[in-house]
User: What shape does this take?
Amino acid sequence: MSDFFCTKTAKARKEHKCCLCDKIIHKGEVHFVKSGKFEGYMFSDRQCLPCEPVLEEFHKDWDGGYSQHNVKEWWVDAKCAKCVYYDDYDEGCLMTHYCRCENFKEMVQ
Ligand SMILES: [Zn+2]
Assistant: This one.
């Protein structure tokens, strides 16, 4: 039996939580349903639309599987150091989602 992976979009019939950023996907909101089989385990994850470009960028740097945790680590390494708000860390980082940050603004060199 081989692994497979399938992505489709769906309109939420009830509330879900994004598997990457923990944002609430509200009833009626269009989102991704990613399902398949990986190493013998079936999975079906709900993911919000804004997480998709993050994941695409992540996959340029990283081959293979991902988890909420390694996407976050990648984001911190790849993005936070270049972010204009990074020096404000003492006052609390502005990370707005578990795996990415909507306040990210790249520093102009
Ligand atoms: Zn999300």
